[in-house]
Amino acid sequence: MYKILAKELLSPVIDYIRVEAPEIAKKAKAGQFVVIRVDEVGERIPLTLADWDSKEGSITLVSQQIGTSTFKLNSLKSGDKIMNLVGPLGLASEKENFGTVVCVAGGVGVAPVYPIARALKGAGNKVISIMGARNKDLLFWEERLKSVSDELIVTTDDGSYARKGLVTEPLKEILERNKEVKRVISIGPAIMMKFCSLTTKPFGVKTIVSLNALMVDGTGMCGCCRISVADVTKFVCVDGPEFDAHKVDWDLLLKRQMGYCDEEKRSLERYKTCKCHSS
Ligand SMILES: Cc1cc2nc3c(=O)[nH]c(=O)nc-3n(C[C@H](O)[C@H](O)[C@H](O)COP(=O)(O)OP(=O)(O)OC[C@H]3O[C@@H](n4cnc5c(N)ncnc54)[C@H](O)[C@@H]3O)c2cc1C
Ligand code: FES
Predict the structure, then answer these.
(1) pTM surpassing 0.90?
(2) Which residues of 26-140 form beta strands (DSSP E)?
(3) From the CB of 57, is ligand 2 less than 6 Å away?
(4) 222 lines ligand 2 (CB under 6 A)
(5) DSSP letter, residue 21
(6) Ligand 1 atom closest to Cα of residue 259
(7) Would you call 113 helix, strand, or coil by DSSP?
(8) What is the mean pLDDT of residues 18-41?
(9) Cα(237) to centroid(ligand 2), Å
């Protein structure tokens, strides 16, 4: 059992959760994730390590409430316990000195982008970050991301804060004016990552994405997270989660993400109606 040390709302639908997990905190690297199971009847869900503190023996998770498991997680308070926590899983991000890099975060993607931007800044890169959300209420960690970036551009789809528009617009402008950009890292909803990939492709700038495929075991055994990269089958949990965006079969990823939509909707309705903890 893993004790929740702190829990707060970063936005009406996004939870910050700091959990006691000393063994994971000791080994954590930017880009890795954990698989959690909230209770004994819960499903296993992957969440990225948004931060960690090896001295305190804690890890930080940021979770967007979208279905049964993330709503269950939201119902827990500081002092409550999470049943299972496995990690760190997946391969760590590359943290070389590439020169100038652009980090693009969409929605809850700010959480996984933050430790990657910090690691890239620490490796001597010039880090230009772009963070975007549908509206002002869904933005969080602006100051945190700013603290590890040389430049930060914020966008909202509806213009309720900062620049109006999608993250791909400043991304294109940066690539047009700055030929030194050597790498783009983009994390957010799959559709946003797909469009970031389409934006960078004509410029020939290597683009890395962290894929949010559906997962079960998280250790390469069930095949649930399989995707196609350069026509080769890969498992997001053990071969990723980061991949070369220009080689990903985006349509397959998007189709497989929707594979259990009806069941997930029914499960959430049941959970909201009876608050019973079945998945
Ligand atoms: C490696 C990895 C790291 C992740 N890190 C984070 C993180 O740090 N924070 C965070 O909030 N989320 C993260 N996710 C996504 C998170 O795992 C899912 O949101 C979660 O499993 C949903 O579970 P649920 O039971 O609440 O919703 P479900 O009932 O499973 O789904 C509800 C709705 O969301 C859609 N959905 C479900 N899973 C995903 C998914 N993986 N991607 C896109 N849409 C999905 C479904 O189609 C459905 O419509 C990560 C995913 C992966 C693979
Ligand atoms: S989650 Fe089972 S193989 Fe990746």
Answers:
(1) yes
(2) 33-37, 45-48, 51-53, 58-64, 81-82, 84-89, 100-106, 126-133
(3) no
(4) yes
(5) -
(6) 47
(7) helix
(8) 95
(9) 6
Q: Which atom in ligand 1 lies closest to the alpha carbon of residue 72?
A: 26
State the ligand closest to the CA atom of 241.
Answer: 1
For residue 53, is pLDDT > 80?
yes
Residue 274: predicted pLDDT: 76
pLDDT tens readout for residues 67-104? 999 999 999 999 999 999 999 999 999 989 999 999 99
What value does the mean pLDDT take over residues 63-70?
Answer: 92
Q: Is the CB of 74 under 6 A from ligand 1?
A: no
Query: 18 — phi, psi (to 5°)?
Result: -105, 125
DSSP label at residue 93: P
How confident is residue 206, by pLDDT bands cut at 50, 70 and 90?
very high
Sign of CA dihedral 88, 91, 97, 98: negative
- CA 236 and chain centroid, separation: 13
Q: Whose CA is nearest to atom 3 of ligand 2?
A: 220
Beta carbons of 207 and 195 less than 8 angstroms apart: no
Q: What are phi and psi of 154, to 5 degrees?
A: -115, 135
| Residues 6 or more apart whose Cβ sits within 8 Å of residue 195 | 166, 168
264 CB under 6 A from ligand 1? yes
